[in-house]
Amino acid sequence: MTIQEALAQSGFTAEEIAALDAKKLAAFGSVLTTAEQKEQAAKDAVTKAEADLAAAKAAQDAAELAQRANKQFYDETIMPSLTGWEDKEKALQSELANAKALAAFYETQNKAAKDGGFIAADAPAFTPPVAANPARDASGKFVAGAPGGTPGSPTFKMEEFEDRLGKGLDNSVWALQEYQRLSGGQFLPDSISTLAQEATANKLPFRDYVARKYDFAAKSAALQAKAEAEKADAIAKAAVAPYEERLKQKDQEWQQKLEEQAKTISERGGNNPDVRRAAISNYPDVKKAVAEGTRKDPLAMTREERQVEMRRQIQADVATNEEAKQGVAA
Fold first, then answer.
1. Could you give the number of structural domains in the chain?
2. Under a CB-based contact definition with an 8 Å cutoff, are residues 146 and 134 in contact?
3. Which domain holds residue 55?
4. Does 215 map to a domain?
5. How many CA atoms lie within 13 A of 130 on its CB side?
6. What distance in Å separates the CA atoms of residue 32 and residue 59, rounded to the nearest whole number?
7. pTM tops 0.85
8. How many other CB atoms sit within 10 Å of the CB of residue 220?
């Protein structure tokens, strides 16, 4: 924006702008340029700060994801393997010790039988039986998860399958109901399968991931604050309700009294002789004034003369009332 445009937006006319000195315009332009540069620098700083914050958030999420992945790999892969190999080694050592003891026993028995002449000296030596493979059944088929088998071998139990299926259904219903409750009845924007895949990819439990993605904590806090505000408003209304009812009754009573007074005043000054207030006629005074010549006969006056006389009488009455008021005040 040029200095001329800035002055025009401030209300200066083209003639006033043209009449300004060139040095003043240059000085104004320098100030305006400096201000624009500072404003742009501030905007750039805000943009950079927002970008740095987003990058820091992304780095934090990536670090947390890597930490959860490492922990899951350690808990689900390394630890079971170490535990399995340790158990297998113990089982093998136990079987080896038993086999050696059994072989030593039969060897001793065989030697004693030969020495005693119970069996021929040229009989074949004792050969220990080969231990059965615990990972195979009687027909030679592989038995998953058998003791002494390969650590981490797949297993299948109907109880575990039913338990996982029940938890999956429970998590699905929880996600749908919780989102609707916290969003005012809206439907969950993502499918359950998508959320489950995202939770697995982020190495988080299903409920923790869903609550983090849709910010259930903030929504729940907002609902609680709204409920507390509504409760406080209801308590305040209940507290002032009796007073408002009394004020309403008083207003109705005053309104009724005002209407009755207005009706009474209207009837007193109306044309109905049954309710009109009686007043003393001043006709004798008028007749006397006409006879004395101090007042014109109203019946002999024209319309204009009667109007003039009526205004004069009103002014005289007003003056008399004012004098009476001043006398009372004195």
1. 2
2. yes
3. 1-120
4. no
5. 2
6. 40
7. no
8. 14
